[in-house]
Specification:
The chain has 472 residues and is of the alpha/beta class. It is built from 15 helices and 18 strands. It folds into 2 domains: 151 residues, Rossmann fold (3-Layer(aba) Sandwich), CATH 3.40.50.1010; 212 residues, 3-Layer(aba) Sandwich (Rossmann fold), CATH 3.40.50. It has a 6-stranded mixed beta sheet. Strands 7-10-11-12-9-8 form a 6-stranded mixed beta sheet, with no helix packed on it. A 6-stranded parallel beta sheet has the order 15-14-16-17-13-18, with helices on both faces. The radius of gyration is 27 Å and the shape is globular. Keywords: ATP-binding, Nucleotide-binding.
Length: 472
Amino acid sequence: MNSTQHQHPQRLFVLDTNVLMHDPTALFRFQEHDVFLPMVVLEELDQHKKGVSEVARNVRQVSRFINDMLSAAGIDAIHAGISLLNQRLSGTGKGAASGYLLFQTEAIASQLPAHLLGDSADNTILAVALSLRDKHPNRDVVLVSKDINLRIKATIIGLKAEDYFNDQVLDDADLLPTGFHELPNDFWETHSKEMKSWQEHGHTFYKLSGPMTTSWLPGHFIAVTGDAPFQAIVRKKSPDHVVIETVRDFTEPRHAVWGINARNREQNFALNLLTDPEIDIVTLLGTAGSGKTLLTLAAALAQTLDEQLYKEIIMTRVTVPVGEDIGFLPGTEEEKMAPWMGALMDNLEVLTQPTTGSKWGRNATDEFLMSKIKVKSLNFMRGRTFLNRFVIIDEAQNLTPKQMKTLITRAGPGTKVVCLGNIAQIDTPYLTETSSGLTYVVDHLKGWEHAGHVTLQRGERSRLADYASEHL
């Protein structure tokens, strides 16, 4: 097993295989502490290295990391441990790791209780962790795993066990911005002393300063209710002032987007972002029935067909299992994706069915619209570049941060990307509200003047759906 020459007071973390499958850079994220890899973990990594899935790619990256470190350190490092001090890679954590990477180099006698039967990989990892704890009584040995059941078993037999937290974007999903600030009715009394206003190309701008403006970010909205309601978007922020622009009121019938009007304040904010050519990426969070997909499709159709700002609409979503082959369904890529695109078809039915006109005319309209909407699988996105496209990523909460980065960086000149999702409905294994790729994008792009985010808080699907969401 690892050499006894590293008798540090730092903690010794025993990594489960699923931690490395989830985040290949986990080796470098434990700061000054040591990391230990049991032999069974290396064997499990070898079993999952083949394929084109995200897990297989992560496993191969882990193997490359270990191979590069062993090549640089020499054969003696296998017994002594590899120093992680100079192994910092871009994006591998908050600080450079300064501990050691240790390997299991000898067999161990099973230390497991008699009631843990079998020689499964989980039990072998537990046995290794128990042996390390006995061998290093002055060290804090901790098993790190994404597997809840393994952590429960470890706790039962007296081992310390933790989830892997370093991939989390936020400590609490409730810290995500809503995308708007509701201001008190006396806001103008305290913030209009040095206010300046002007108009450019039919848009009204205000330059403000004051204590409340310090928390505002570009791309966020402000709203004043009361007798004189006011809504605006923050365009620029400086240390001593902010510049805001009044928004269009999409609740008015004359401002309908492809026949759709906003039904509440948040939907109005969303339509302003979706129709703003200065906003390159929009993230919309919201519960079922809040209008995310309907508003996005309406804005996409209006700007693609009426205003011709974009050549076509590209829509994609996660097929669970994420990143795996979409199966042996017959047909083309779009036909294979059809079962996953029920939400698209439901919303198109609302947007494209006129109350009058012949059946032939409606069918012709549907066929024309579908020629402008391309349904793509995530599997074939890598390496592509989208020029002048309106890209919609549905169910984005099921994507990892790495997958989100891969998709968003496909955007070429003139392309707008819209990410839709509900972080309360995550289906991907090992992803949580705080580690989802959608959370990652919202948190990392906040404050960029070409990004916008809104959390839709009210369901508008039907009175039955709204009541069921609250009471069931």
